Amino acid sequence: MRAGFESTARDGGARTGTVTVAGGTFRTPCFMPVGTRGAVRHLSSVDLADLGAEVVLGNTYHLMLRPGAEVVRAHGGLAGFAGWDGLTLTDSGGYQIFSLQPKVDDEGATFRSTYDGSTHVLTPERAAAVQADLGADVQMVLDVCPALPAPDRVLRAAVERTALWAGRGRRAFREHPDAPGRQSQFGIVQGGTDPVLRAESAQRTLEVGFDGYAVGGLSVGETRDEMLEPLAAVTELLPTDQPRYFMGLGDPAGLVEVVAAGIDMFDCVLPTRHARHGTVLTTAGRLNLRNARFATDEGPLDPDFPEGPASRWSRAYLRHLLMTDEPTGRRLLTLHNLAWLLDFVDRLRDAIADGAFEAFRARTLDVWG
Question: Which of 48, 93, 98, 331 has a CB 3.0–4.6 Å from the CB of 42, allowing a cystine?
Answer without folding.
Answer: 331
